[in-house]
Amino acid sequence: MTYILGSSQSDFARAWAREGLDISDMMRDSVRDALEDAQVDAEQIDSIHVGNAFGELQRQQAHLGAMVAQVVPELWGVPAMRHEGACASASLAVLTAMAEIEAGRYDCILVVGAEEFKNTRGDVASTNQNAAGWQGREDIDCRFLWPAVFGLTAQEYERRYGLDRRYLNRIAELNYANARNNPQAQTRNWEFNELSFTDDDNANPVIEPGTRRQDCGQITDGAASLVLASPDFAARWMRRTGKTAARISGWGHRNASLRFKDKLERSDDHVFPHVRQTIQDAWHRAGVAGIEAMSGVETHDCFTTTEYIAIDHLGLTEAGQSWRAIEDGTIERGGRCPINMSGGLIGCGHPVGATGARMLHDAARQVLGRAGDMQIEGAQRMQTLNFGGSFGTVVSFVVEAAPA
To answer: Which of 259, 381, 386, 389 has its CA 20 to 30 A from that of 85?
Structure first.
């Protein structure tokens, strides 16, 4: 079992290049903030894992494992590596860190997730993200690949089960509302009107068939870091600090093909069975029976469609019936299983390489009662669900407070 001793998230509303800064600066600040939060000295870090998806395309900067020692000299000499799995890059970094801890190789590991998008125009950043699909072979006639992919996902739900767009609009409305309670959220001060969450073509225009403006997550700069530890290190840390740690009690990780349409050919009752299997793997490893054991979820809503998918794949409803959990308030604050109290990728923001770490940052704060205005009352156990590409990489974690 792996423990989370501390964590950090940058302000996702910040555009670093406009301040004359870049991804190295956000990594430096994120690392120092996480170490301070954890009350761990840099000299205690045994290993470093960095999640980043598009550094080469956005800033022609690779080799980001070595960047950490570049900007935090106290970490000179510490082994480090970078991981890429599109939007799940930081989750893969966490999985590797956990494996090192479980193998007994290291006791205290730093995970850094970081992505920079605001140093280019939005259309350039959007095009760069197409690298997470199968370039030239997706066979989708579109201008914007990812809005098109997840628009097709909505159309698949419509074909199988029926889909009322009111529920997608409601997901967007909830996540933007939740973001207002998050002091680090990109959209915390954004304003909307009575037509913003409708199918009005002026207030909420179509981006690609099946996807409107408010369905889309954000193009975001940001970093999030975690200090992870073995049970022995965490026990000593808790005695020294008098603080309680969170722990990752379960995990799931599965992959599918790059090409979106190939996944639809392998569907069963759930549109993406490997997503359902990943979630169940996390429950099994955590020793819980299912979603009823969770106080809430931080899920991947790069588009409203992916949160809609998460709802039924998590078991909050029967397959294809996600709308029921939206209509009855299950996913809202005070509901049976609140989703994305942080604002999610739509409200909080989506710096791709940082998102998996940011989800764990918020999950840990929930179970430790440190989530401020985002707090789920009495939160005991949280689940994260992180997608890379068109569900090509799927990672889920279960997080709970460590016993006193």
So the answer is: 381
